[in-house]
Amino acid sequence: MSKINLEAPFTAFRGKICKHSKIIFAQRGQTQYTSQICNPRTKAYSEEELARQAKFKTALTNANAALADSTQKAAYETAFKAQNKYKSLRGYVIAKEYEKLA
Known about the structure:
Elements: E1 15-16, E2 23-28, E3 31-36, H1 47-68, H2 70-81, H3 89-101
Antiparallel strand pairs: 1-2, 2-3
């Protein structure tokens, strides 16, 4: 019995297959993801959505600054270890910074 060695013509996909396609390929690290956009957005963002996005961007900036500071990071690490809701320190810090903005 003969052996067949199949080689992919390319190793990574990114973006759409063509302009009419709704299927999207993306690679995150070593994992290849395939997705399909069923209902693409057709209208502009509302003021409420833009405000929520700006608030999250501010919380993310504050969280990155807090994780860069060693004293704040140590305080967040001790609080993170005492809780069970969040799985990562980064997610916990972002959530706490978002709560501060409310």
